[in-house]
Amino acid sequence: MDDLLQISRLTKQFGGLVAVSDVSFSVREGEILSIIGPNGAGKSTLFKLASSFLRPTAGEVRFRGERISGLAPHVVARRGVVRTFQETTIFKGMTVRENVIIAHQLRANASLLGYYFASSVARRDEAEFGRSADEILAFLGLDGIRNDPAVTLPHGHLRALGIAIGLATNPTVLLLDEPFAGMNHDETMRAVEIVLGVRRRGVTVLLVEHDMPAVMQISDRIVVLNFGEKIAEGTPAEIQQNQKVIEAYLGV
Ligand code: ADP
Ligand code: MG
């Protein structure tokens, strides 16, 4: 498998604090790669560096060989490196389906979309993108509530809608930060199936996650951070037997 995303010697300092320290690894085309580690290990910071929401203090991120670190997040998203949408970026007054329809535009136009503009775009693009939006909604089990205003959705559905919006932008790499957080066992198992389904659609997945059973089930490879440094990288089986990882994280 080819390397899609290359993380090279990434360092991020916040004042005197080194949140991510000289971390290198690659994400291969078609894989699910998870980043794990204790609280404060630097996972979210690394995630934000990989999606260009943060600028590194040193090092770089390359996508298909081209440097993307330092570019604006919407420029990176347009190239195909997309992080799922947080609840705050979902258009709450629009329906579930309208949110997915306008996501096609987000890839081209992420920085320009205002709320008002968005709903007229959704109406305009209905004919062109309605079918693919419906297909994505069915895939995520949201078809029954597609005409509900996003504002009425419970937390779990909002999370699924965030993934739907991400998928509608037709990403090459989808980045997910703790997609299973706060979910019960059944919800997690469903979400695991969704992420596996995303990969079956040919999307490469980079995931930060705390839920170890889910991580071990879903990941092709895992990168382990501790105090900002990469302490291990390998398959779930390798990681579970790694002494450093057990001491720093899994053993507790
Ligand atoms: P994790 O996601 O693994 O729990 P984070 O990447 O969120 O860890 O944080 C790593 C370290 O960087 C922590 O010590 C955290 O307090 C610090 N940190 C994260 N973001 C900032 C920020 N914007 N400003 C200052 N310190 C930060
Ligand atoms: Mg975090």
From TrEMBL:
Q: Which SUPFAM superfamilies match?
A: P-loop containing nucleoside triphosphate hydrolases
Domain ABC transporter: residue ranges: 5-252
Pfam families per the UniProt record, alphabetical: ABC_tran, BCA_ABC_TP_C
Q: Which GO terms of the molecular function aspect are on file? A: ATP binding; ATP hydrolysis activity
The alphabetical list of record keywords is: ATP-binding, Nucleotide-binding, Transport
Q: Does the keyword S-adenosyl-L-methionine apply?
A: no
Which Gene Ontology terms of cellular component type are present?
Answer: plasma membrane
Q: Which domain of life is it from?
A: Bacteria
Q: Give the matching PANTHER family.
A: CONSERVED COMPONENT OF ABC TRANSPORTER FOR NATURAL AMINO ACIDS (PTHR45772:SF9), CONSERVED COMPONENT OF ABC TRANSPORTER FOR NATURAL AMINO ACIDS-RELATED (PTHR45772)
Protein's recorded name: ABC transporter ATP-binding protein
